């Protein structure tokens, strides 16, 4: 990102480190400007969590994909007939986050909150129905082999 900026304006990036990035821009009518950027964050590698999050639609539901099959198995969608398949998959992925990825909660918590919001909306605010859906999804995920 900063490499392209340094080509556009006089000056160069002088150092990069975990403590921060000091970028000195000079050549603006003799003015020396220094900007310190926020510390670098480790980029998450493309892993199962990221791949599952990528399956979330803009409305909050999840769609089926290779990551869902990897996490839940190929028979997950056909495992029940009480709930809409999109709602069932959404609940399954949220249950998977909760039960199998609890140590990474800060990464998926808002995603799951958005999913639960759409589940409540699609159930017309019927909290009991959504809780039953979530409970059945958690039972399914608990039964998966590790």
Give a structural overview.
With 146 residues, the chain is of the alpha+beta class. The chain has two domains: 36 residues, no CATH class; 96 residues, no CATH class. The chain contains six helices and three strands, in the order αβββααααα. The protein has a three-stranded antiparallel beta sheet, covered by helices on one side. Strand 2 and strand 3 form a beta hairpin. Helix 4 packs antiparallel against helix 5. The longest helix has 18 residues. The N terminus is likely disordered.
Indicate the topology.
Blueprint: H1 2-8, E1 12-17, E2 20-28, E3 31-37, H2 48-53, H3 66-72, H4 85-100, H5 105-122, H6 127-143
Antiparallel strand pairs: 1-2, 2-3
Give keywords.
146 residues, alpha+beta, 2 domains, three-stranded antiparallel sheet, 3 strands, 15% strand, globular
Mean pLDDT: 78
DSSP strand tally = 3
- Percentage of residues in helical conformation: 40-55%
**How far from one another are the termini?**
40 Å
The total domain count is 2
Report Rg.
22 Å
């Amino acid at each position: 990102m900063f490499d392209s900026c340094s080509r556009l304006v006089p000056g160069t990036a002088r150092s990069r480190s975990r403590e921060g990035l000091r970028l000195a821009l000079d050549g603006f009518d003799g003015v020396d400007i220094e900007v310190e950027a926020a510390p670098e964050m480790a980029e998450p590698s493309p892993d199962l969590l990221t791949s599952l999050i990528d399956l979330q639609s803009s409305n909050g539901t999840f769609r089926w994909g290779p990551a869902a099959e990897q996490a839940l198995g190929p028979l997950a969608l056909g495992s029940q007939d009480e709930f809409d398949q999109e709602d069932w998959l959404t609940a399954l992925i949220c249950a998977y986050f909760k039960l199998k990825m609890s140590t990474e909660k800060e990464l998926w918590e808002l995603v799951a909150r958005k999913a639960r919001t759409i589940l409540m909306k699609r159930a017309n605010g019927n909290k009991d129905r959504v809780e039953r859906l979530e409970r059945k999804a958690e039972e399914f995920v608990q039964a998966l082999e590790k």
